[in-house]
Prior knowledge:
This protein is 62% helix and 10% strand. By secondary structure, the chain is an alpha/beta fold. Among the domains are: 131-292, ABC transporter type 1, transmembrane domain (ABC transporter transmembrane region fold, Up-down Bundle); 324-406 and 489-496 and 517-580, 3-Layer(aba) Sandwich (Rossmann fold), CATH 3.40.50; 413-484, Rossmann fold. Strand 4 and strand 5 form a beta hairpin. Mean pLDDT is 86; it is low at 1-6 and 560-580. Bound molecules: adenosine-5'-triphosphate and magnesium ion.
Amino acid sequence: xxxxxxxxxxxxxxxxxxxxxxxxxxxxxxxxxxxxxxxxxxxxxxxxxxxxxxxxxxxxxxxxxxxxxxxxxxxxxxxxxxxxxxxxxxxxxxxxxxxxxxxxxxxxxxxxxxxxxxxxxxxxxxxxxxxxxxxxxxxxxxxxxxxxxxxxxxxxxxxxxxxxxxxxxxxxxxxxxxxxxxxxxxxxxxxxxxxxxxxxxxxxxxxxxxxxxxxxxxxxxxxxxxxxxxxxxxxxxxxxxxxxxxxxxxxxxxxxxxxxxxxxxxxxxxxxxxxxxxxxxxxxxxxxxxxxxxxxxxxxxxxxxxxxxxxxxxxxxxxxxxxxxxxxxxxxxxxxxxxxxxxxxxxxxxxxxxxxxxxxxxxxxxxxxxxxxxxxxxxxxxxxxxxxxxxxxxxxxxxxxxxxxxxxxxxxxxxxxxxxxxxxxxxxxxxxxxxxxxxxxxxxxxxxxxxxxxxxxxxxxxxxxxxxxxxxxxxxxxxxxxxxxxxxxxxxxxxxxxxxxxxxxxxxxxxxxxxxxxxxxxxxxxxxxxxxxxxxxxxxxxxxxxxxxxxxxxxxxxxxxxxxxxxxxxxxxxxxxxxx
Length: 580
Ligand SMILES: Nc1ncnc2c1ncn2[C@@H]1O[C@H](COP(=O)(O)OP(=O)(O)OP(=O)(O)O)[C@@H](O)[C@H]1O
Ligand SMILES: [Mg+2]
C-alpha cells in the first residue's frame, strides 16, 4: 500500500517546521546569552559600583544593561511570532492531507476516531506554538548556566546541579505515572463522545421509545470512567507539582545560604552570591517549564503518532496523472470484498462487463451484498481481490477528483450535506445553475424543488429545511446526475418513492440510456427492472445469474413468483444455470 509519497505530508510539514526550528534556535541562543545581563549587572553593582561609589560607572552600566534587556525582549517578541507562523504553516501543510485521509480512514470502516484527527492537528500545532516548545529550545542552556555557577564556586555549582537533577527527575517521573491513565482517559472520553453523538443522531427513536435513561446511564458510565482516569492522572501530576513547588524555593534558599557561608569565609563576594542565585533561577526555568507542560507534550506526541499512522495508512492519491475522459466501459473481474475488520467475504468472485448505454439491474435478497457491490463499483470500498476497471483503468488508479466527476452514485442511506439544494446538487461546487437545473430536470425533480420554501436556494441540513425521505432521495438523484457522469450507480433509488416518483425514475433511466450512460440499479422491487437490459442476481455474496433481462426474468419468475428470499425457498426453486 505504501509508496514514497505517502509520508510526505507529515514529513513536509515537519521539514518546513525544522527550517524554522533553526531560526528559533538561533534566536534562543541570543536570548539566553542576554539572560546573563541581569546577574552580571548585579555582580558589577555589588562588587564594583558599591565598592568604588562611582556614579559614572553606575550610569554606564545601567544604560548598557537596559539596552541589552530591551534587545532581548525584542528577540523574544520575534521568536514568539515565528512560533505562531510555524504553527500556521504546519497547519496549512497538513490539514488538507489529514482531511482527505480522514475520509479514506472512515471508508475503511475504522470509524471510532472520526474527527479526532482534526483535533490532533490542533493539538500538535498548539504544542508547536506554546511555551512547551520554547522550553525545549532553552533546555540546552541549563548546563551552560550551571557551568557558569561552577566557575563562581564549585559548591554553588553543586547546589544548582543537584537542583536541576532533582527537578528533571520529577519531570521524568511525571511522564511515567501519568502516561497510562491519560492515554486510557482519552480513549474513554472519545468513546463517550462517539456514543453521545450516535445517540443524538437517533434522537427520535431514542425519545419515542423512552430510551433516554438507558442511553444516559451508558454515556455516564463511559464518561465517568474517563473522568476517573483523568482525575487519577491530575492527582498524581498535582502531587509532583506540589513537590516541585517545595523544592524550588528550598534551592533558592540553599543557594543564598551556601553563598552567605562562602562570603563569610571570604571565598566569594556578595555580588557573586546574588548573581549565582539569579543564574540558577534561569538555569532551572526550562526544567520547570518542562514539568508544567508535560501533559501538553504527551498529548501532542500522541496526536502526532496518530496522525502519522493515519497518513501512512491512507496515502494521498492526488498526484495521480489524469487519464483520458472515460466513456463508461465497466469491467468487473472476479472481485472479492471483505468486511473492514475481517471475517467472511461479503462478495466473492463476481465478474461482469457493461458497455456505455447498457443498464444493469442488480437484485437479490437482503444482505446478499448488493450495496457492497455498488460501493465497489464507485470505488469507495477497497476490494480485497480482483479488479474493477472503468475504461480499462483500475478505479484506484484514477485521480479521485476525475473519477468522482465521472461517477454518479446514489447511496442506499441518502444523507445530504449542510448547504442549499443547489449546492448539494452541484456536489458542493459553486453551483452552475444551468447544470443544476439540467440535472434536476433529468430526474424530474425540478418541480419538486421549486415547491420548496426557497426553491433551489432552500437551506437543508442543520438549522435549515427538513426534507422528507422521498424529497431527499430525488435531490440526491439529481446530485448523482450532475455534470453528466458516464457511470451511474443507484442503490435502491425507489426505496422512498411514491408512484409518481417511481414513474419519474423510470423516465430518468430511459433518458440516461438514450444518452449512452452506463447505469447500475440495485433494487428489491422488480418494477424497476422494466427499464434494464441486463439482470444480475446476487445471493449470499455470490453471483447467481447474469444475463439479458428477457432471459433471466422469465426463468426467475417461472421458478418462484418473486425474488426468492431464503435458502429454503431457493432449494424449492429450479436451478438457474449460472452465466458467470
Ligand atoms: N461495513 C461493514 N462491515 C462489516 N460487514 C458489512 C459492512 N457492510 C455490509 N456488511 C455485511 O455485508 C453483507 C451484505 O451487505 P449489503 O449492505 O451489501 O447487503 P444488501 O444486499 O445491500 O442488503 P439490503 O438489500 O438489505 O440493502 C451483510 O451481511 C452485512 O452485514
Ligand atoms: Mg443494500
